[in-house]
Design brief:
The complex is a heterodimer of chains A (173) and B (372). Chain A has five helices and ten strands, in the order H-E-E-E-E-H-E-H-E-E-E-E-H-H-E. Chain A is α+β, with helices and mostly antiparallel strands. In chain B, strand 5, helix 6 and strand 6 form a beta-alpha-beta unit. In chain B, helix 6 runs parallel beside helix 7. Classes of the chains: A alpha+beta (173), B alpha/beta (372).
């Protein structure tokens, strides 16, 4: 019984996350139960809670992963991060960068941005994790309403920080 | 717009006819007193809630053609009633506006529609976000000026674009039960002809999913009898640009958003998957009412209203089956919607004038009613 209890406690932090999902050029651990689509609107991965069991989460929480090539003679992580900030601001209003954290994930440098902005009729908060994967940059973004974002910060941050490079496939279109 | 909601009994006491209500295009449900006031005429039957609106697009040239369509719409609204208008993008050619005080606000909006005293809800088009005459869509900041004009002190108050994408319900009175919910979509970032699609400055890869999520959620939550999305870019069109996924024949060489595939994906995942009633759009400069297609739930009807100023010939008039279509002539649509019917009239100008009969009544080129 004691052994089982110890095992359960050890597994508890992992239980909030499903198995690692491997996509085209990346892998990531999604929050448990989240459903994903690959390739819609050219986006390598879109994921969110299932509509049937969490309608509010389905309508508010969203994780995307993008994979973008980089000419490393011209672009470093810092430069790419600036481009990403510009890209988010381009489509947004009332744009604020709340935090920028340098990270190292299994030996690869990364930047974690915390953003707040308005897009369309919605106010959004976002974690944007940009990972230097050699000849490309991987970006995991999770967005939600500010209230839901604050409530789920730990889960969202764990998800984006689980982003890792993987082998690439040929381009679909 | 401040609209008049006067109970019919009050009008009767004042000796005014109930006809005044329909003439001003009011759509609010009207309650009658249960006990008639002595000495007053018999109660008029309860009015059926009704919404009337016009749809026009690709208009913003500030030229004779735009002025003529503006005058024709004002004439029609005076005769048949309009609660508001929707504009399907390319509100300012060729490269949008550069501020909320740009002179085009007067020449291509306020003056052409000076006699159209109703709110106008515009969508953004590729030329509204452009730096070059081709309307490449690489300057979203210009579109943001159109959002800002909604609350600008210089505006007449007609312009209603609270955000790049948003929703509103009609009747416009917040107290009324919605008959229609409109979803105003920002298609341009998902269908732009960018000089360098790989340039992350214009990256739609996050904007697309968040707009899709909002649209799906709003569509799912809608309690309106009818759902209507409007945008600049088509899902299908027999005009020069063609169908999304192969805009301008770019489907053979797909790069980024040029062929409109990301925009098609958004529509497939939302409007088509969830059974939207109508999609109204522009981009091509003609008038079309297209039949539902199997690739989009075989139910959604597609209405192209892009003949608000300069016009063009069809690209391939047989590409998609149409109920009716008209090229090479200015025009617009007028709609009347109740809880059970959605009627649209295509008005085509002749010699830049609204076509009317001998009695001065408007003569639509085509009329179609969809019932529920």
């Amino acid at each position: 019984m004691k052994y089982l209890l110890t095992l359960a406690v050890l597994l508890l932090p992992l239980s909030a996350f499903a198995a690692r999902l491997v996509g085209d050029g990346f892998s990531i651990e999604l929050p448990q139960g989240w459903e994903s689509r690959q390739g819609v609107m050219d986006v390598p991965l879109m994921a969110r809670p299932p509509q049937a069991s969490d309608a509010e989460g389905w309508g508010q929480d969203l994780l995307t992963v993008t994979v973008e090539k980089a000419d490393k003679r011209r672009t470093c992580l810092e430069g790419f991060t600036q481009r990403k900030l510009k890209e988010f601001a381009y489509h947004a209003s009332q744009f604020e960068k709340l935090e920028e954290l340098p990270l190292e994930l299994q030996g690869r440098v990364a930047t974690l941005l915390t953003l707040r902005y308005r897009e369309g009729p919605r106010e959004l908060m976002a974690y944007v994790l940009i990972l230097d994967a050699g000849n490309r940059f991987l970006t995991a973004t999770v967005t939600s309403s500010p209230a839901r974002f604050e409530f789920q910060r730990a889960k969202f941050r764990s998800a984006v920080e689980s982003l890792r490079p993987a082998s690439t496939r040929s381009k679909k279109r | 717009m401040n609209r008049l909601y006067t109970p019919i009994s009050t009008l009767a006491v004042l000796g005014l006819s109930a006809g005044l209500l329909t003439a001003c295009g009011d759509s609010a449900p009207i309650s009658l007193p249960t006990t008639p006031v002595p000495g007053t005429p018999a109660p008029t039957p309860i009015a059926t809630p009704k919404v009337r609106f016009i749809a026009f697009g690709d208009a913003g040239r500030g030229n004779e053609n735009q002025n003529a369509v503006g005058a024709a719409m004002a004439q029609l609204c005076k005769l048949k009633g309009c609660d508001f208008g929707i504009e399907t993008g390319d509100n300012f050619y060729e490269v949008g506006v550069t501020s909320v005080t740009d002179t085009q606000w007067q020449t291509a909006f306020e003056l052409p529609y000076k006699d159209l005293n109703i709110p106008i809800y515009p969508a953004l088009g590729n030329h509204d976000n452009a730096d070059t005459d081709v309307g490449e869509g690489a300057n979203n900041a210009k579109g943001n000026f159109q959002v800002d004009y909604t609350t600008s002190p210089g505006s007449s108050g007609k312009w209603k674009m609270p955000a790049r994408y948003h929703a509103f319900t009609a009747p416009l009175s917040a107290a009324a039960t919605p008959l229609i919910e409109f979803f105003v979509l920002d298609s341009s970032p998902l269908a732009a002809t960018l000089p360098n699609p790989a340039e992350t400055e214009y990256n739609y890869l996050t904007y697309g999913p968040t707009q899709l999520q909002w649209f799906q959620t709003a569509l799912m939550a809608s309690k309106a009898k009818w759902t209507v999305a409007f945008s600049h870019h088509p899902y299908i069109s027999n005009g020069e640009h063609g169908n999304a996924g192969n805009f301008d024949g770019a489907g053979m060489f797909p790069v980024g958003t040029t062929d409109g595939q990301p925009w098609k994906d958004l529509m497939d995942e939302s409007a088509c998957a969830m059974g939207l009633d109508f999609h109204i759009f522009g981009h091509d400069h003609d008038l079309e009412w297209l039949k539902p297609v199997a690739s989009c739930n075989a139910k959604t009807e597609f209405i192209l209203s892009g003949a608000g100023s300069d016009v063009r010939a069809f690209g391939d008039a047989t590409l998609n089956p149409a109920y009716f279509q008209q090229d090479l002539a200015q025009g617009f649509f007028w709609f009347e919607v109740t809880a059970t019917s959605f009627t649209g009239e295509m008005h085509v100008l002749k010699d830049l004038k609204l076509q009317v009969d001998a009695a001065g009544q408007p003569m639509p080129m085509f009329t179609r009613t969809v019932t529920k």
